[in-house]
């Protein structure tokens, strides 16, 4: 050990794993030549080890409770936009149950329960918990509903929806994300979710009509295929508009097939792929 160097004792960092990660990375870099060393791989391995050591079940449950408490506190001030004073408790209970850290890359797992979007690769993110809660609340999912989700990501929102709906069909355009989502959902036991690789603009005609539709990327206009696949009496929640001018919109189709829309709030989502793409690719 170099004189004066702090001993790398991870027990010292049980209450601050970030400090442990920084120390570990500094230690390894000081002992290994950078030639041939994959720093990203080292970081992933260290994060994984530290998570297993310090972020136990009780800690993670506490983090989820804190996340839900933050969402609850923020939505207390959104009554005018949402048209209600509080979110559905079923939604909040589902979010308190689903392990969000299992649906993000390992290197960002320590940030999984912050109220912020989390990068998942391919220039994509999963929505911040507040937005997930608001969209799920607006959907008003029932236990026997069949939901179409456009934009699976790594499967977090599909998992939350699976706690609330009877069946979830989810379409993801990026094959690598779809395959990871399938594995993550399977590990968590969500047997009522089916994921397909394809262009979500076209929906999933095979399983239509759907009681509910949720979209996690923004088209310029509401895609006609999604309206057509919405059951009479159904509801869709979708961000719509050009970048910088997007609105979260609730679309409702009455029993006679008449469609109405209602703007909820300004939002910022990635752009939904258009109809110039093939509807489905082999998965």
Tell me what you see in this structure:
By secondary structure, the protein is α/β, with parallel strands linked by helices. Helices cover 36% and strands 20% of the residues. It is built from 9 helices and 9 strands. The strands form 2 sheets. The protein has a 7-stranded mixed sheet with strand order 5-4-3-6-7-8-9. Strands 1-2 form a two-stranded antiparallel sheet. A hairpin with a 2-residue loop joins strand 1 and strand 2 (124-126). Helix 1 (17-31) runs antiparallel to helix 2, helix 3 (57-75) crosses helix 6 (129-139) and helix 5 packs across helix 7. The chain starts with 16 loop residues before the first helix and ends in a 16-residue tail after the last strand.
Keywords:
283 residues, alpha/beta, Rossmann fold, 2 domains, 7-stranded mixed β-sheet, two-stranded antiparallel ribbon, 9 helices, 9 strands, 36% helix
Ordered list of secondary-structure elements with their pairings:
Blueprint lengths: L16 H15 L7 H16 L2 H19 L3 H4 L6 H9 L20 E4 L2 E3 L2 H11 L6 E5 L5 H9 L2 E6 L2 H13 L5 E5 L12 E6 L8 H5 L1 E11 L5 E8 L5 E9 L16
Parallel strand pairs: 3-4, 3-6, 4-5, 6-7
Antiparallel strand pairs: 1-2, 7-8, 8-9
């Amino acid at each position: 050990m170099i004189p004066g160097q702090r001993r790398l004792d991870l027990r010292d960092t049980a209450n601050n794993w970030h400090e442990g990660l920084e120390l570990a990375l500094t230690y390894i870099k000081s002992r290994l030549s950078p030639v041939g060393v994959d720093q990203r791989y080292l970081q992933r391995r260290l994060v994984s080890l530290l998570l297993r050591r310090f972020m136990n079940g009780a800690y993670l449950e506490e983090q989820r409770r804190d996340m839900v408490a933050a969402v609850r506190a923020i939505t207390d001030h959104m009554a005018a936009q949402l048209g209600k004073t509080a979110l559905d408790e079923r939604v909040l209970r589902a979010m308190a149950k689903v392990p969000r850290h299992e649906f993000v890359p390992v290197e960002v797992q320590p940030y999984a329960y912050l109220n912020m979007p989390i990068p998942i690769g391919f220039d994509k993110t999963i929505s911040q918990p507040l937005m997930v809660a608001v969209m799920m609340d607006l959907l008003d999912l029932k236990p026997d509903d069949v939901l179409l989700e456009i934009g699976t990501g790594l499967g977090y929102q599909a998992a939350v929806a699976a706690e609330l709906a009877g069946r979830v069909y989810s379409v993801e355009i990026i094959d690598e994300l779809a395959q990871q989502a399938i594995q993550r959902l399977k590990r968590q036991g969500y047997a009522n979710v089916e994921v397909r690789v394809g262009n979500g603009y076209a929906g999933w005609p095979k399983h239509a009509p759907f009681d509910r539709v949720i979209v996690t990327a923004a088209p310029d206009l509401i895609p006609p295929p999604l309206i057509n696949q919405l059951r009479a009496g159904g509801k869709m929640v979708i961000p719509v508009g050009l970048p910088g001018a997007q609105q979260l919109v609730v679309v409702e189709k009455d029993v006679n097939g008449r469609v109405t829309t209602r703007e909820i709030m300004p939002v910022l989502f990635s752009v939904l792929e258009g109809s110039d793409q093939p509807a489905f690719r082999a998965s």
